[in-house]
């Protein structure tokens, strides 16, 4: 097992009827900015319920944080924070709203140009750039990204998507009420299942380091998603199925299974370019890229692919090649069973667009991807060609 530091201060309130904790954990004298996306949070009455819990606090609203939150939109919220002296943010939404709120939290006290925050990649932002932030909590409405219990965000700017990370941007608390997610469209739930699944494989299907606890937790998350994914899409008010999805998505990216193990993230980096270029949903891009990546990288990932085949898919018979082939096939079939297509051509993307995506990867510095930094642009090209 590799050396690691683990830190996660987020308080979680899980289950039915947990909104009352807002009043307990938002300072009584706070000026609060509620951040959210489209109109569904308003129409459903959720924003009204949140405001009721905030009681007599002075409350402002900022709506319109889009999927793959845009820098320009978030900077409008930063203006509100600064002009109204907001001292607490409350994100009501899925990963994009929570990611956007993390950026608002950072940018509001950024000492320089907030655009500089986009260029740290996976390196933490230093105190020389941001010394303090606006604290925030979240009310989760879409299980997918794990943003409700981690310190990372992905922000869209111009033609790219940029990871932003800081120890200062863990939510103070997050409310995870599965019933709030019951009205989500099926495709959003399917995307969330896939996002959680691929978050897990990015930290699990790499190479062995004898991290038995992390492996077993990762395998449990994957098996849970396989067992409950289709059920929670077909039966949206099945509380037990949805509760397991919500907690799986949170556990997939709160740092536990990634501690002390090598991590890949190439599927995400390539997927981000597909979203930026073609507007394909994030979860759908992951379903497109992962099976192709596993095929191209089967030798580098052989030991963990065999473990994945045997422990997650219970494939016990056949040669090593047979087991790997079937595990990749079952992965693709699982995504497709959720109603998600797994080939670029099925989204109207022509084969001649591969060159453009490879050039975008180069432009954004994504030239040494994977757990061993050996996915070059040429290897990315092979993955994309296979994903057609």
Give structural notes.
There is one protein chain. The chain has helices at 21-25, 40-43, 46-54, 71-84, 95-107, 186-204, 212-234, 239-252, 266-278, 282-296, 302-312, 320-337, 354-363, 377-387, and strands spanning 11-14, 31-36, 58-62, 88-93, 136-140, 152-157, 160-165, 173-176. The protein has 388 residues and is of the alpha/beta class. It folds into two domains: 11-180, Rossmann fold (3-Layer(aba) Sandwich), CATH 3.40.50; 186-387, Dehydroquinate synthase-like, alpha domain (Up-down Bundle), CATH 1.20.1090.
| DSSP helical segment count | 14
Query: What is the β-strand count?
Result: 8
What is the CATH topology classification name of the largest domain?
Answer: Dehydroquinate synthase-like, alpha domain
Task: Give the low-pLDDT segments.
Answer: none
CATH class category label of the largest domain: Mainly Alpha
Strand content: 5-15%
Structural class: alpha/beta
How is the secondary structure organized here?
Layout (H helix, E strand, L loop, with lengths): L10 E4 L6 H5 L5 E6 L3 H4 L2 H9 L3 E5 L8 H14 L3 E6 L1 H13 L28 E5 L11 E6 L2 E6 L7 E4 L9 H19 L7 H23 L4 H14 L13 H13 L3 H15 L5 H11 L7 H18 L16 H10 L13 H11 L1
């Amino acid at each position: 097992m590799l050396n690691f530091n683990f830190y996660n201060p987020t308080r979680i309130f899980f289950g039915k009827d947990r909104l009352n904790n807002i009043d307990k954990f938002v300072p009584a004298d706070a000026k609060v900015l509620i951040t959210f996306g489209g109109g569904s949070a308003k129409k459903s009455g959720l924003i009204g319920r949140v405001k009721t819990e905030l009681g007599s606090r002075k409350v402002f609203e900022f709506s319109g944080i889009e999927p793959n939150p845009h820098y320009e939109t978030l900077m409008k919220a930063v203006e509100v924070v600064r002009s109204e002296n907001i001292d607490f943010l409350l994100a009501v939404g899925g990963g994009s709203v929570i990611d956007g709120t993390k950026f608002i939290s950072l940018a509001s006290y950024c000492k320089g140009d907030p655009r500089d925050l986009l260029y740290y990649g996976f390196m933490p932002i230093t105190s020389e750039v941001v010394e303090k932030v606006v604290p925030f909590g979240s009310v989760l409405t879409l299980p997918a990204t794990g943003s409700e219990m981690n310190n990372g965000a992905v922000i869209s700017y111009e033609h790219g998507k940029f990871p932003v990370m800081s120890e200062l941007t863990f939510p103070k608390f997050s409310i995870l009420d599965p019933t709030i997610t019951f009205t989500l469209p099926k495709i959003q739930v399917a995307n969330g299942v896939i996002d959680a699944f691929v978050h897990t494989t990015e930290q699990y299907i790499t190479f062995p380091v004898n991290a038995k606890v992390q492996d077993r937790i990762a395998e449990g998350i994957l098996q849970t998603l396989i067992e409950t994914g289709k059920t929670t899409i077909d039966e949206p008010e099945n509380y037990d199925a949805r509760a397991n999805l919500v907690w799986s998505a949170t556990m997939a990216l709160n740092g536990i299974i990634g501690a002390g193990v090598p991590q890949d993230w190439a599927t995400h980096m390539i997927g981000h370019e597909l979203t930026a270029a073609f507007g394909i949903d994030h979860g759908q891009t992951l379903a497109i890229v992962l099976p192709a990546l596993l095929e191209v990288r089967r030798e580098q990932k052989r030991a963990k692919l065999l473990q994945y085949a045997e422990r997650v898919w219970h494939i016990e018979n056949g040669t090593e090649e047979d087991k790997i082939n079937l595990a990749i096939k079952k992965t693709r079939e699982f995504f497709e069973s959720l109603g998600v297509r797994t080939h670029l051509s099925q989204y109207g993307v022509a084969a001649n667009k591969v060159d453009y995506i490879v050039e975008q990867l180069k432009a954004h510095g994504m030239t040494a991807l994977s757990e061993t930094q050996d996915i070059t642009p040429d290897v990315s090209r092979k993955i994309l060609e296979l994903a057609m």
